[in-house]
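User: Okay, second chain of the day. Same drill as before: sequence in, C-alpha cells out.
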Amino acid sequence: MDTVYLLRHFLATLAFRTQHAVRGAPENYPEFKAGKNVWTPLRILNHMTEIVITTNEVYRGRDASKLELLPWDDVIDKFHAGLRELDNTLLEADPPGANRILQLFQGPWLDMMTHVGQLMTLRRLAGSPVETEPYYRSSIRVGQVGPDQPLETA
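Assistant: Same drill. C-alpha cells below.
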C-alpha cells in the first residue's frame, strides 16, 4: 500500500466519521452549548473546515486566509468540498515526503479527528447520541469524501 493511498484513506475516514457525527442531528445541535467557553458544534465544524482548506493551501505552496464562519448546512458542504480538493491535491501533487506526512498527522489531521470525537460527545450531551458502530467494518472507500457517506457497516 502506498503512502498517498493511506493518506487518502484517512481523508475518507475523516469524511465518514464526521458525517456519522452530524447526520440526523436535531435542529438545536449546531448551537448547542455544553458549558462556558466550550465551542458549539457549529464552531467546531467551521474550525475543521478551515483546517482542511488551510492544509490544502499550504500543501500547494499558497498562502491560506482566514475563513468566515458559515451556517451549519453551508459549512458541512464546504468541509466536504475542502476534503475533495485536498484528496485531489494528493492525487495530482508530488507524493509527500516522510517529514510532511508526520506533520500532517501530528498537526492538522489528528486535530480534526479529535474534533470529530468532540462532535460525537456533544451529540450525546445534546440528548441525541449517535449509535455505536464497529468502525473497522465501515464502508470507507478512498476518494469518497463527500457528505453522501454510506453509514452502514459491511
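The two ends are 21 Å apart (CA to CA).

User: Thanks, on to the next one.
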